Amino acid sequence: MKRNILLNPGPATTTDTVKQALVVPDICPREEEFGELTQSVLKKLAEVVNGQSTHSTVIFAGSGTAGVEAALSSIVPESGKILILDNGAYGKRAETIVRAYKISHRTIRIEWGNFPEISQIETVIKEEPKLTHFFFVHHETTTGMLNPLTEMLELCKKYELDSIVDAMSSYAGLPIDLQKQPIDYLISSSNKCIQGMAGISFVIANKEKLKLTSNLQVRNLYLNLWGNHIHIEQTGQFQFTPPVQIVYSLNQSLDEFFKETQSVRTARYIKSYETLLEGIEQTGLDMLLPKSQHSKLLTAIVEPKSTKYNFKEMHDHFYENNVTIYPGKGAKKDTFRIANIGAIDYNDMKVFNELMLEYFHEIKS
Ligand SMILES: Cc1ncc(COP(=O)(O)O)c(C=O)c1O
Question: What is the rounded end-to-end Cα distance, in angstroms, of the chain?
Answer without folding.
Answer: 37
